[in-house]
Amino acid sequence: xxxxPVEIKQVSEREIWIGESRFYLGEDNIIYSTIVxxxxxxxxxxxxxxxxxxxxxxxxxxxxxxxxxxAGTPSSEARKIMQEFIMHEKYGKLAIFGLxxxxxxxxxxxMGVTKKEDVHFFKSKEDALAWLKE
Length: 134
What we know:
Elements: E1 8-12, E2 15-18, E3 21-25, E4 31-39, H1 41-55, E5 62-74, H2 76-86, E6 91-97, H3 101-113, E7 119-122, H4 125-132
Helix pairs in contact: 1-2
């Protein structure tokens, strides 16, 4: 089966869509990402590039809120790409939100393999945002 290329749309200076996934730099300088569907290596690279583009609009480290409720399964290559990117110098705190079982598996994987201590999983969006704004 032939894979179709990842569709990337920059909706505004602060908003980028990759397929059905959305990346948005809020007025509070937090990047809000909503991940939808399975993630292959090409998509993971596009996610990283979109996130970095938004991060570069802010001085210093940038916190990221990720809603994984509609996320699918990442390929092993995608997991490696995302793991490496989380260690980028611009990355501040990462709050992962999701009640979906896949979200919990993704979060535990990311938290288990990264040396970064500012990565936490939350069952409540409100708790996640409160932690990012501490």
